[in-house]
C-alpha cells in the first residue's frame, strides 16, 4: 500500500513519516515542494534518510497513485491539497483546522473537503488521536452494548495539553487546540448525536492577551446527555501523562473512568528530579496511523470522519460565542452535514 | 476556662456527630429536638435533654442547629435575639432571603454565626487550601471538583426541583471549596439531571453539572452526584490548576491502611474526623480564640451560589451574581 506524507511543514509530519516507514506493508511516498525557509532541500534529505520515495512536486506525487495521504502541510493550505488527494482517489488523514474566531471559516473549508471526499468515494479521517486507542474502543463498545454501564446521560472529562508552539494553534486558544479531542471522544460514544446547547467560559490568566488558556465547555446533546469538559492548557513540563485525556461516563448501572495514559510504573527519576510515570507505551500516534492504514479501503473506517469533525467545529464555534456572551448558545436544529 | 454551654437542636445523624465533637471539645450540652429523639440521644451520651427551644437557649453560649433546613431561620433568629452564638449545619437557610436575614440580624447584634461546612475540615481540602493560601499554586486558573455518594435514607424534607432539590445539599461542598479557593462568583451555569425533587425515596440518583466563573477570572467545574447504590462508597476528587502547577486528589487513593479481602471498608484510618476538627475550632473561637476558617458571609455566599445554580438549571440560562460586600 502506498501512503504519502504531504509536506514536512506540519508539526507532526516527520513523526508520521517515521511511523509509516516502520509499517511492514506501507510504501512511503513523500513530497515537500516548498521546503523550509532555511532548508529548501528538507524534503529530499528527509526522504533519503527514511528510504522513502520522493516526488519533486504534487503532480509527480499523485501520479504515483497513493492509496492514502497524510496531510501535514502548513496551516492554511490543507484544504486544496486534500481535495486534490481525494480527486486522485486517496483516503485522507488530516489535522484539525484551528479556528481563531467565531466566523466558522475553517468549518466551511472542512465542509468543502468533506463534500469532495464524499463525491470521490474516499474517507476523510481527522487526526483526533485519542479516539483511536483500543482501550477507548472497549469503553465505546461496552457503553453501546448497554449491559455493564447502563444508560449514559452524564459525561465529564479533561484534556490539558500545554499551549502549542505553532502560532495559529496558539492563537486558537484552549478551545481550538484541546476541545476537539474531548468533543470527538463524546461524539464517538454518543454515535454522532448532535449537540443542542453549548455553554462555555474561558480565561486568559496563563496566556497572551486575547487568547483563552483555560476553558470549560458544557454541552447538552439532543438525546439529553450532558457533557462538561475542561479543555484548559496544562503546564508545559507536566508530561503527556498529566494531559489526559481523562473522561468519566456516568451510567445508571455503573460509571466508567477512562484514562488515556495510566501509570504502569511509578518511582522516582533522580536524573529528571521528578516522580516517574511510565505508561504501557502504546504510542497514540502510532496506534492512530496503524488504524488509519488498516482501514483504507474498508467500509467502516477508523476514528472520527469529516462529518464528526464538522459537528465538533460547530460546538467549538458556539462555545466561543457563549464565552463571549456569558449565556448558553442554542444550536438550531440538527443541521444536516450534507444537503 | 469555663465549659461552653451548648444547645444542640436536632437529634439526627449530623446532630449525633456534632454532639460527640462538642463533648470532645469539653462543652456542656443540652439537646432539644422536635422529632422526639432528643431524650434517647442525650441519654446515650450522658447529657440532658430539654423540652423547648427557650429552655435550650436559656443560659446557652452557643446553639448548634442540626434540625431540618426549613427550621434554621426561626431558631437562628431566636438565638441571635438572645445573644447566643450560632453554629448551623449547612445550608444556613433554604433560600437567599432567609440566609440574608440571619446574617443581617447576627451582624447587627454582634453575634457570631459559624456555618458547619465540614468539608473545609476534611484533610484533603484543608491541605489544598493551605497550599493555595501559601501561594504554592500561583494564580488560580481552573479547578474541577467531583463528589459522588449514596444517601443512606429516604429524603423526608420538602424541596422542589425548582429550588435545586436534593442536589443543593450535594453541590454545596464543591461550591464552598471553589469559593474558598478562588473567591467571589459572578456567573453560574448548571444542568441538573435525575429526580431531584424531595421527598424522594432512598436510592434516588441525580447529577448536577455546574460551572462557576469567579470575579478574579478563575473557573470552577463542579460535578455532584447522588448515586443509586451504596457501592461504591462516597468518592471525591479535585484537580486544581494555577500558573505554578496543579494540586490533585482522589479519595480512592490508598491511605495508611488498606484492608483487602473481607467486607469492604472493614476498617481504616483517615485522620481526625472533620466534625471533631470543625467543632473544636468553633469552640476555641467562642472561647476567645482566633476566628474560625469560615464565618457568616461564607454561608451566605454558598447559599447564593447554590440557589443561582438551581435557578440556572431551572431556566436554562446562566445566572449573574452581583458581588456584594461581605455581610459579616
The main sheet of chain A comes to:
7 strands, mixed
Portion in strands of chain A: 15-25%
Q: pLDDT under 50 segments of chain B (min length 5)?
A: none
Helix- and strand-based class of chain A?
Answer: alpha/beta
Mean of residue pLDDT values of chain A:
91
Question: What percentage of amino acids of chain B are in beta strands?
Answer: 25-35%
Query: What string, H for helix and E for strand, traces the elements of chain A in order?
Result: EHEHEHEHEHEHEHHHEEEHEEEEHHE
CA(first)-CA(last) distance of chain A: 33 Å
CATH class of the largest domain in chain B: Alpha Beta
Shape of chain B: globular
GO molecular function, one term (chain A): nucleotide binding
Domain Gfo/Idh/MocA-like oxidoreductase N-terminal (chain A): 39-127
InterPro entries (chain A): Gfo/Idh/MocA-like_OxRdtase_N (IPR000683), Gfo/Idh/MocA_Oxidoreductases (IPR051450), GFO_IDH_MocA-like_dom (IPR055170), NAD(P)-bd_dom_sf (IPR036291)
Keywords (chain A): Plasmid
Describe this structure in words.
The complex is a heterodimer of chains A (339) and B (328). Chain A has helices spanning 13-21, 42-50, 58-63, 78-87, 105-120, 134-145, 167-171, 173-177, 179-190, 240-243, 284-294, 306-325; strands spanning 2-6, 27-31, 53-55, 68-71, 91-94, 124-126, 152-158, 195-203, 214-221, 226-230, 246-251, 255-259, 268-269, 274-275, 329-330. Chain A contains 12 helices and 15 strands. In chain A, the strands form 3 sheets. In chain A, strands 12-11-7-10-9-8-15 form a 7-stranded mixed sheet. Chain A has a 6-stranded parallel sheet with strand order 3-2-1-4-5-6, with helices on both faces. The longest helix of chain A has 20 residues, at 306-325. Chain B folds into 2 domains: 5-116, Rossmann fold, CATH 3.40.50; 119-272 and 296-320, Dihydrodipicolinate Reductase, domain 2, CATH 3.30.360.10. Helix content of chain B is 34%, strand content 26%. Chain B has helices at residues 13-24, 38-45, 53-57, 72-81, 96-109, 123-133, 165-182, 274-286, 296-315, and strands spanning 5-9, 28-32, 48-49, 62-65, 85-89, 113-116, 140-149, 155-159, 185-194, 198-200, 206-214, 219-226, 235-242, 245-250, 319-320. In chain B, the strands form 3 sheets. Chain B has a 7-stranded mixed sheet with strand order 14-13-7-12-11-9-15, with helices on one face. A 6-stranded parallel sheet of chain B has the order 3-2-1-4-5-6, sandwiched between helices. In chain B, strand 2 (28-32), helix 2 and strand 3 (48-49) form a beta-alpha-beta unit. Chain B is globular. The interface between A and B is medium-sized, with 35 and 32 residues.
Amino acid at each position: 500500500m502506498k501512503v504519502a506524507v504531504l509536506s514536512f511543514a506540519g508539526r507532526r509530519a516527520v513523526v508520521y513519516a517515521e511511523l509509516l516507514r516502520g509499517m511492514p506493508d506501507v510504501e512511503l511516498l513523500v513530497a515537500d515542494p516548498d521546503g523550509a525557509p532555511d532548508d529548501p532541500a528538507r524534503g529530499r534529505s528527509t526522504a533519503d534518510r527514511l528510504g522513502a520515495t520522493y516526488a519533486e512536486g504534487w503532480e509527480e506525487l499523485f501520479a504515483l497513485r497513493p492509496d492514502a495521504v497524510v496531510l501535514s502541510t502548513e496551516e492554511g493550505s490543507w484544504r486544496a491539497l486534500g481535495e486534490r488527494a481525494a480527486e486522485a482517489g486517496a483516503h485522507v488523514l488530516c489535522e484539525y483546522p484551528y479556528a481563531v474566531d467565531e466566523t466558522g471559516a475553517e468549518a466551511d473549508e472542512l465542509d468543502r473537503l468533506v463534500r469532495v471526499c464524499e463525491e470521490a468515494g474516499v474517507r476523510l479521517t481527522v487526526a483526533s488521536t485519542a479516539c483511536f486507542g483500543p482501550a477507548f474502543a472497549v469503553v465505546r463498545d461496552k457503553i453501546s452494548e448497554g449491559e455493564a454501564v447502563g444508560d449514559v446521560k452524564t459525561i465529564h472529562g479533561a484534556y490539558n495539553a500545554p499551549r502549542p508552539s505553532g502560532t495559529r494553534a496558539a492563537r486558537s486558544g484552549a478551545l481550538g487546540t484541546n476541545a476537539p479531542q474531548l468533543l470527538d471522544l463524546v461524539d464517538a460514544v454518543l454515535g454522532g448525536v448532535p449537540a443542542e446547547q453549548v455553554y462555555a467560559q474561558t480565561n486568559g490568566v496563563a496566556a497572551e492577551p486575547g487568547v483563552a488558556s483555560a476553558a470549560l465547555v458544557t454541552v447538552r446533546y439532543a438525546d439529553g446527555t450532558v457533557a462538561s469538559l475542561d479543555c484548559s492548557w496544562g503546564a508545559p513540563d507536566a508530561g503527556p501523562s498529566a494531559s489526559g485525556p481523562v473522561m468519566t461516563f456516568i451510567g445508571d448501572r455503573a460509571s466508567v473512568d477512562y484514562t488515556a495514559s495510566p501509570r504502569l510504573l511509578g518511582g522516582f527519576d533522580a536524573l529528571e528530579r521528578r516522580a516517574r510515570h511510565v505508561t504501557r507505551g502504546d504510542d497514540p500516534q502510532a496506534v492512530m496511523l496503524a488504524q488509519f492504514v488498516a482501514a483504507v479501503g474498508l467500509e467502516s473506517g477508523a476514528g472520527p470522519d469529516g462529518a464528526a469533525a464538522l459537528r465538533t467545529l460547530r460546538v467549538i464555534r458556539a462555545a466561543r460565542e457563549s464565552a463571549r456572551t456569558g449565556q448558553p448558545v442554542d444550536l438550531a436544529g440538527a443541521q444536516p452535514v450534507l444537503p | 476556662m469555663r465549659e461552653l454551654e451548648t444547645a444542640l437542636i436536632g437529634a439526627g445523624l449530623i446532630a449525633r456527630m456534632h454532639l460527640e465533637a462538642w463533648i470532645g471539645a469539653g462543652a456542656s450540652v443540652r439537646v432539644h429536638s422536635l422529632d422526639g429523639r432528643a431524650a434517647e440521644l442525650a441519654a446515650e451520651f450522658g447529657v440532658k435533654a430539654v423540652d423547648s427551644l427557650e429552655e435550650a437557649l436559656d443560659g446557652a453560649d452557643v446553639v448548634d442547629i442540626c434540625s431540618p433546613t426549613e427550621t434554621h431561620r426561626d431558631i437562628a433568629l431566636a438565638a441571635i435575639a438572645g445573644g447566643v452564638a450560632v453554629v448551623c449545619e449547612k445550608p444556613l437557610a433554604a433560600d437567599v432571603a432567609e440566609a440574608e436575614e440571619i446574617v443581617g440580624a447576627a451582624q447587627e447584634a454582634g453575634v457570631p454565626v459559624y456555618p458547619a461546612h465540614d468539608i473545609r475540615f476534611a484533610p484533603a481540602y484543608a491541605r489544598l487550601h493551605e497550599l493555595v493560601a501559601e501561594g504554592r499554586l500561583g494564580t488560580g486558573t481552573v479547578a474541577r471538583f467531583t463528589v459522588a455518594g449514596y444517601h443512606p435514607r429516604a429524603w423526608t424534607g420538602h424541596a422542589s426541583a425548582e429550588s435545586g432539590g436534593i442536589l443543593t445539599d450535594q453541590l454545596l461542598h464543591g461550591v464552598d471549596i471553589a469559593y474558598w479557593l478562588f473567591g467571589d462568583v459572578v456567573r453560574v451555569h448548571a444542568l441538573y439531571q435525575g429526580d431531584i425533587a424531595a421527598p424522594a425515596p432512598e436510592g434516588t440518583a441525580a447529577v448536577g453539572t455546574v460551572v462557576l466563573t469567579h470575579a478574579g477570572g478563575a473557573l470552577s467545574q463542579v460535578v455532584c452526584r447522588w448515586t443509586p447504590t451504596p457501592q461504591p462508597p462516597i468518592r471525591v476528587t479535585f484537580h486544581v490548576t494555577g500558573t505554578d502547577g496543579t494540586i490533585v486528589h482522589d479519595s480512592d487513593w490508598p491511605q495508611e491502611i488498606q484492608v483487602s479481602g473481607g467486607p469492604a471498608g472493614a476498617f481504616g484510618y483517615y485522620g481526625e474526623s472533620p466534625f471533631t476538627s470543625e467543632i473544636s475550632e468553633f469552640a476555641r473561637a467562642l472561647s476567645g480564640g482566633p476566628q474560625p476558617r469560615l464565618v457568616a458571609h461564607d454561608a451566605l455566599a454558598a447559599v447564593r451560589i447554590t440557589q443561582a445554580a438551581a435557578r440556572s438549571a431551572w431556566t436554562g440560562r446562566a445566572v449573574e451574581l452581583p458581588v456584594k460586600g461581605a455581610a459579616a
